Amino acid sequence: MTLKTLIVDDEALARSRLRTLLRDCRSPAAEVVAEAAQGAEAQRHLESMALDLVLLDVHMPGVDGIEVARALRGRADAPAVVFVTAHAAHAVTAFDLDAVDYLTKPVRAERLQQALQKAERFLKERRALQADALQESVLIQDRGRAERVPLSEVLYLKSEYKYLTVRTATRSHILDGSLNEFEERYPTRFLRVHRNALVARSAIRALEKYDDGEDAEGWALRLDAIPEPVAVSRRQLAAVREVLKEAR
Questions:
Q1: Which one of 51, 195, 213, 236 has the fewest CB atoms closer than 10 angstroms to its CB?
Q2: Domain layout of the chain by residue ranges
Q3: Could you report the per-residue pLDDT of 158-170, keeping only the tens digit for each?
Q4: Mind listing the pLDDT tens digit for each residue in 93-103?
Q5: Which CATH number is associated with domain 144-247?
Q6: How far apart are CA 178 and CA 43, in angstroms?
Q7: pTM for this model (two decimals)
């Protein structure tokens, strides 16, 4: 693997040194496809091109490296992040933001190569997990016809009578199954929001006040791609708020 790399540092000499060191890296190799002298410039590159790795300084004028990394968090296509800085005090914050490594200046060639190896492992493991997730599906049987619906398309599941409603962006399906089974099997994919409902964590857009005619002080989630809200019980409200807080 050759890692398509963005170097972000407000010091031109620091960017030049990293470019020089990267030329000698072989296992894996890295190709510098862009550079940025400030966080806002880095964000534009990250939105406009496919990247494998960001070598990211922490202290920069305006948008700093921590803000850049925080904006990447949770993106399925986010590059691996390696912080490169003269200040070791930010190491804990860096790893809280899912950075794969933390290098202190002056960077040594051997240590940089180790960071590239960590980035390569991170990317390979994530791509394998994403491939597995795409293969997972739920089998819907309706009037003698069977259809596989990828779990990645399921926005919520609701328990209604003896059946589950499986909602995607375009259709609702009926499934003979158990919410508990989905919750136990896919805890990182689905979140319990009500005794009769699970929602896809990745689809959560907003939590808002909701009057369902019975409880004027109720709450509901808005999900991507569908208009109807999903009610949140008071018992699950704290867990939902925690998930939203982590996603910011």
A1: 213
A2: 2-133, 144-247
A3: 998 889 999 999 9
A4: 767 788 999 99
A5: 2.40.50.1020
A6: 43
A7: 0.57
